[in-house]
Amino acid sequence: MKRILTVAAIALGGFSSLPMHTAAQTPAVTPDQLVAALKQNLADSQTKIHQYEWIETTAISLKGEEKSRKQQRVYYGADGKLTKLPVGPPTPLPQAAPDAGGRGGRLKQRVVENKKDEMQDYMEKAVKLIQQYVPPNPAQIQKAKDAGHMKLMPQPDGKVRVEFQNFVQSSDVMTIDIDAKATVLSAVHVATYLEKKSDTVTLDVRFATLADGTSYASQTTLDAKAKNIRVIVENSGYRPLAR
Predict the structure, then answer these.
(1) pTM to 2 decimals?
(2) Closest to 168 (Cα-Cα) out of 146, 187, 149
(3) In the chain, what's the furthest Cα-to-Cα distance?
(4) Strands 215-224 vs 82-86: parallel, antiparallel or unpaired
(5) pLDDT tens for each residue of 123-163
(6) Residues contacting residue 103 through CB under 8 Å, at least 6 positions apart
(7) Distance between CA atoms of 164 and 58, rounded to whole angstroms?
(8) Cis link prior to 94 (omega < 30° from 0)?
(9) Is residue 189 pLDDT above 90, yes or no?
């Protein structure tokens, strides 16, 4: 589970901010205008967040029961790479009851280890897939728009939802919610699958805004329903990074 935690935290924590300084001003914005704004802001999204450090809390649950929780100090180094340093020890995983040993005990241990390896492999595949969506690739956005796979849907309270179908693979859906009043990104949702369509994987990213207008991912939730695994990453405690 610790290895799974590392895989999930690295992938989900790497998506921190998508400011929308020139996003749609009204629900009547044209597709070309919105795509241009999205591409520009996605290209510039990491500039402001590089000026901050923050605390990332990652919790992994299996079948609704939390199995691990970990906190890390996160910031971008001078080389532009995302750096994560542990903050205190992670919560210990539940320990199995002592086994009397023997052939039965060894067999049980092998089964447990095989399940751990299977979960790690599954999470690595799920995270690799999600990375094709988040952060959204500007070129892929343009491609989806040109193929007629993009829809603009006005929402209540001055929001605009942009839906992309078949964004990475057939029958997938990615939606981006934009607060047109504040011109900031408010949410991203991805509904996709691994090798077969019944093996669903979803990702929900919720955004908040710092005092200087920088938008950041306040909470990211990955659900791998086929394995009953949920990973929740919360980012908080933002402050200017001292170089």
Answers:
(1) 0.74
(2) 149
(3) 71
(4) unpaired
(5) 788 878 877 888 778 888 888 889 999 998 888 877 888 99
(6) none
(7) 28
(8) no
(9) yes
Residue 8 above 50 pLDDT?
no
- 162 touches 152 (CB < 8 A): yes
What is the DSSP secondary structure assignment for residue 223, as one 8-state letter?
Answer: E
Instruction: Please tell me the distance from the alpha carbon of residue 203 to that of residue 177, in angstroms, as a whole number.
Output: 14
At residue 24, φ and ψ (nearest 5 deg) are -55, 130
For residue 72, give Cα distances in angstroms to 217, 221, 222. 15, 17, 18
User: CA-CA distance, 176 to 172, in Å (whole number)?
Assistant: 14
50's tokens: 């590089």
Three-state SS at 230: strand
Q: Which has the closest alpha carbon to 90: 112, 72, 117, 114?
A: 72
Q: What is the 3-state secondary structure (H, E, C) of 30-98?
A: CHHHHHHHHHHHHHHCHHHHCCEEEEEEEEEEECCEEEEEEEEEEEECCCCCEEEEECCCCCCCCCCCC
Q: Is the pLDDT at 41 greater than 90, yes or no?
A: no
Residues 6+ apart with CB under 8 A from 174: 133, 136, 163, 164, 167, 168, 188, 189, 190, 191, 192
* pLDDT at site 179: 74
CA distance 60 to 127: 14
Q: Which residues are CB-contacts of 231 (< 8 A; sequence separation ≥ 6)?
A: 8, 12, 58, 59, 60, 61, 123, 221, 222
Q: What is the pLDDT of residues 42-54, one digit of tens each?
A: 666 678 889 999 9
